[in-house]
Every structure is written in C-alpha cells, then in structure tokens.
Amino acid sequence: MGKKQSGSAEKKPTEKKGGNSKNTNKGDQSEGKGKGGLKAATTVNVRHILCEKHSKATEALQKIQEGQRFDKVAQEYSEDKAKAGGSLGWMVRGSMVGAFQDAAFALTPSTVDKPILSPLVKTNFGYHVIMVEGRR
C-alpha cells in the first residue's frame, strides 16, 4: 500500500500541474483575443461611405459588390469628412451612434479590395456602408 501512495503522488507532482496550467492560461488569453475578438473587441478600425440619399448609398454598395475597391468608391460617393477612402480610424465602443456601432462591431475584419460589408445602416447622418479593417 505504501508503494501505491508514493506512486500516485509521483503521477501528480504539483510543479508540472502548475506549469501546465500557467501555459494553458497564456494560450487561452492569446486565443481569446484572436478567436473571441468579435465579442471582446473594444475598438474597431472602421471605414464607411455616408450618403444622405438611400439611392446613392445603394449605388455605392453595388459598385463594391461588383468588385470595385472600397476606398475608391468611398472617395467618389461618401458625403462626410472621411474622404481618405472612408477611413474613420480606430473608433472606441461608445463613440459611435448605436446602429453604426452595432454594425461595425458585428463585422469581421477585411481589406478594401475584398471587403466584408454591412447592409445599409440608417442613422441620423444618413445611410452608411460599413467595413472594418481591424479589431482590438
């Protein structure tokens, strides 16, 4: 019996267990930022096209869906101050109007040449086509 007890104690040394759990935690944290980023992000690097008229926003959305670059369409169609390809830069949660923010944080990051777009988002500013370039 004494041998069995010492044998079971050898199977569970506290140093190895502690070391494993520390490594696991570090792995979980880095994975959490990557995979769980869609839920946990507090800022998004966002671009948009703002049009006062629904028809113009729809036209811009169609141009992008036909394969035109988001930044080029934004320069041509967007009616706001973000003329630099529609870029608003890094926006913190809480600094955007509700519907715009909800759409921005729901999007998966993409690039201007192959953007993942929001459907048209109506705010008091007009109609937005939104894409997100990054999350953190």
Automatic annotation (TrEMBL):
Annotated region described as Disordered, given as residue ranges: 1-40
The organism's place on the tree of life at top rank: Eukaryota
Name assigned to this protein: Peptidyl-prolyl cis-trans isomerase
Name of the top EC class for this enzyme: isomerase
One example GO MF annotation: peptidyl-prolyl cis-trans isomerase activity
GO biological process: rRNA processing
Compositionally biased region (Basic and acidic residues): 9-18
